[in-house]
Specification:
With about 80 residues, the protein is of the alpha+beta class. The protein contains two helices and five strands; from the N terminus they run ββββααβ. A hairpin with a 5-residue loop joins strand 1 and strand 2. It is globular and about 30 Å long. It has a five-stranded antiparallel beta sheet with strand order 1-2-3-4-5, with helices on one face.
């Protein structure tokens, strides 16, 4: 998977009022989310199937809140 200079996955814009962009690192099972209100977070241990489900979700923001956040540990990437 292509990487940005900081070693994180390349981000892709999504249709969501709360999520600006997402990226997935399949080598390390990391999901990176840029929130529309500000903030970039990395979620660890996210399987590729969960990333595909996120992209296919009717509401990406709701999916993040109900599936991703409760299941996977996260860390803010903002300094």
């Amino acid at each position: 998977m292509p990487r940005e200079r900081d070693g994180l996955p390349v981000m892709q814009r999504v249709e969501s009022s709360s999520i600006r962009a997402v990226g997935y690192d399949d080598e390390h099972a990391r999901l990176v989310i840029d929130f529309a209100g500000g903030g970039r977070y990395v979620y660890y241990g996210v399987p590729a199937s969960a990333y595909r489900e996120l992209l296919a979700a009717e509401s990406i923001g709701r999916h993040v809140n109900t599936v991703i956040k409760p299941r996977y540990p996260a860390e803010s990437l903002d300094s």
